[in-house]
Write a structure and sequence with these properties.
about 25% strand; ten-stranded mixed sheet; single chain; 15 helices; UDP-N-acetylmuramoyl-L-alanine:D-glutamate ligase; Protein-Tyrosine Phosphatase, Chain A; alpha/beta
């Protein structure tokens, strides 16, 4: 059935010895240098577990892990699994990988990265944040808020938390914040005390097939909430709100869990009112209706955009109402939040031209970040978006939606599709997005990656890019490397 991972049983209990420092043997991670895998490796090392790993190429991540005590290898070899008590992979690692084959042949348990991460959360109060859009920022806000409130949370995030310089850390507090990835069903591993659902959208259809299976997966996710736990759901999103209603009915998934909704919807338990959006931050009032009492709190953020106000409201609800964190400390942490790498990350400014990088890669994320960016520059300045579509399947399925999301930009530059785990699909490329944009009268350019810096320099030389304008690189692939190159090109193009 679509939406059920055929390689991993995410409902089954994870072997107890995976994160046990006293168990014999090593835990071996394939592709250990990747962002998610290296995070799990660091957590295991911090627990005192013997760790080894391999990757196809050398990287700073491998050097860092080696310094922390991991045994690392460049290249894959069956001998690397000798003495391992478990092998950890992601869904991107095929069964044909020589280390996976060797582990299967030797009866060594093969676990998904999320299962190993779940093992690292043993004995903690897990707060799991899921959703097609906003989960990295929400889980980051939640981590900073709990830290400010003195809770010393452990965390495993989808992006590097600027304040910590890492995306994962083991701390002494009871709380453990996890960004729960729905893309392959692995968010069913964590058994959270508090589950946050920011939205339920038709994404990752290469795995789920259709929206109905996506919705079914989120119902399963809610079922994993521990008895007496809480669902924090966005009242402004139809899919998330439907989950909340089902749980509250007592007959749907997660029956018995407490439900808190948040959003601008009048009926939300944490109602967002009086939103004031500025170019460098936002303010709002949280009107909280819980346990028969109404209270108001002022929310101040240094990150822009209405979507981040929602993300912060979710973090507040999970921290204060979910695990009883100090409310004043939580608000202080939210106000001090400095952002996450690749989430509206300012890469530099050249003579008033700002260059920003963002990880947005599905329609909802792109729509939110482009709308926020256009609000920042206003009608008197230009927004240029360099967008790299991610996955051929996603580009094929959602090209018109991406065109609509990019339409507020004054100039759109489209790069070739970043295929990641997928093989190219005939007829699927950036032109699928470019065509409806052109039909709508938008200015669109289809370029190769290496052409973008020179194009940006030419735009400046021609007077079409100047002080007060904003150029964004957007996407989940290697588009992020273009920011410094664009800045250099803009400097070289100075009159």
């Amino acid at each position: 059935m679509l939406g059920v991972n055929p390689r991993f049983d995410f409902i089954a209990s994870v072997p107890a010895d995976v994160a046990d420092p006293d168990a014999p043997g090593r835990v071996h991670l394939v592709a250990i240098g990747g962002a998610g895998m290296s995070a799990v490796a660091r957590l295991l090392l911090e627990r005192g577990v013997a760790v080894s790993g391999s990757d196809a190429k050398d990287s700073p991540a491998l050097a860092d892990l080696a310094e922390r005590g991991a045994e690392v290898h460049v290249g894959h070899d069956p001998a690397h699994v000798d003495g391992a008590r478990a092998l950890v992979i992601s869904s991107a690692i095929p069964e044909t990988n020589v280390e996976v084959v060797a582990a299967r042949d030797r009866g060594i348990p093969v676990l998904h990265r999320a299962q190993a991460l779940a093992a690292c959360t043993a004995g903690r109060r897990v707060l799991a944040v899921a959703g097609a859009n906003g989960k990295t920022t929400t889980s980051s806000l939640l981590t900073v808020a709990l830290t400010s409130a003195g809770a010393e949370p452990s965390f495993a995030l989808g992006g590097e938390l600027r304040a910590e310089g890492t995306n994962a850390r083991l701390r002494d507090g009871e709380a453990f914040v996890v960004e729960a990835d729905e893309s392959d069903g692995s968010f069913l591993c964590y058994r959270p005390e508090v589950a946050v659902v920011t939205n339920v959208q038709p994404d990752h259809l290469d795995f789920y097939g259709d929206l109905a299976h996506v919705e079914a997966a989120y119902r399963d996710f809610v079922r994993t909430i521990r008895p007496g736990g809480m669902l924090v759901a966005c009242a402004d999103d139809a899919g998330s709100a439907a989950l909340a209603r089902a749980v509250r009915s007592g007959e749907g998934p997660g029956a018995g869990a407490r439900v808190i909704t948040y959003g601008t919807a009048p009926e939300a338990d944490v109602h967002i009112a009086d939103i004031d959006l500025g170019p460098k931050g936002s303010r709002a009032v949280l009107v909280v209706r819980a346990d028969g009492v109404e209270q108001t709190h002022e929310l101040v953020l240094t990150v822009p955009g209405e979507h981040n106000v929602r993300n912060a409201a979710a973090a507040w609800a999970a921290a204060v109402l979910g695990v009883g964190a100090d409310g004043d400390g939580v608000l202080r942490g939210l106000a001090e939040f400095g952002g996450t790498r690749r989430r509206f990350e300012r890469r530099g400014v050249v003579d008033g031209i700002a260059v920003v990088d963002d990880y947005a890669h599905n329609v909802g994320k792109v729509e939110a970040v482009v709308r926020t960016a256009k609000d920042i520059v206003g009608p008197d300045h230009r927004l240029v978006v360099v967008f790299q579509p991610h996955l051929f399947s996603r580009t094929r399925d959602f090209a018109p939606g991406f065109a609509d999301a990019l339409a507020p930009a004054d100039e759109v530059v489209l790069l070739p599709v970043y295929g990641a785990r997928e093989e190219p699909v005939e007829g699927v490329g950036p032109e699928l997005i470019a065509a409806p944009l052109r039909d709508g009268g938008r200015s669109v350019h289809v370029l190769e990656d290496e052409e973008v810096p020179a194009w940006a320099a030419a735009q400046r030389a021609a007077g079409r890019l100047g002080a007060g304008d904003l150029l964004m690189t957007v996407g989940a692939g290697d588009v992020t490397r273009l920011g410094p190159l664009i800045l250099t090109a803009l400097e070289d193009a100075r009159p």
